[in-house]
Write the structure tokens for this entry.
Amino acid sequence: MKLTRAGIIYIVLTLLLGFAAVNTGNNLLYLMISALLGFMAISGLLGQQNLQRLQAKVLPADDLFATLPGRVEIELSNHRRWLPAFLISVEIGTGTRLFPILAPGKTERRPLAVTLPGRGYQTLPPIWIRSCFPINFFIRSRRLSLQQQVLVFPCPHSANLPLGDGVGRQTRQHETTRPGIDGELRSIDNYSSSDPLKSIHWKLSARHDEYKVKRQNRLGSPSLLLNLDDFPGSLEERIGQCTFLVDQLFRQQRSVGLQLEDKQLQPGSGPHHRLKLLTELALYGRC
């Protein structure tokens, strides 16, 4: 429990009135002191009750990199049947998120910024829930015994594709499922104003009352196989450079694979494959 500035002023005022009541014997001052002390006691009970039967859970995001500000989802649940929770602040490390009001039996999720120092599975700092309810005299706190681990990806280091036999080695071109004009035929559809004239299937259109167009896949860029041993620097620097390239190449919708000593991950695309590569880099060399 932390005493606020307003609480200090309130206590000092109550003490001054108490000294005045003792010295003067004025019954009205005694009544005022009793009212002030009773108000403080009631606010203390309400504040303590406000933190009871609350449960917090951390839902990690997919993009949590070491030493960089990231975001997790805080899920706060109020398991009380009748009473709502007011002005609940959830803290993890230096990150804070306020829940102004949480209805009884309800659960809410809010993002919270965190920064973790290393890659791999990291234990989150202690989770604290605090509240200044009902009057900002005291800030009451409760620590939640939640030893939760989250997967943290390596800190990316800016890098270019070096010229080597392993890194940047191109394999065959692959086709994406996006519309295009240079891949295999996907389907035949009716013509629309957004279709280019070159996509019209003239022979098939002559057999129908309306124009028909060819839907083809787009031919993607050559896939790449990144080799961790071909990057310069220490192990952590090489992992950081490889992490940077994996992230950037997937943003460019490239097909990327990974070579880690005797383990090879074949080139692929999509969010699931990106997470697979980043997870391998995060856990590489960890017990």
Summary: The first helix runs from residue 5 to 24.
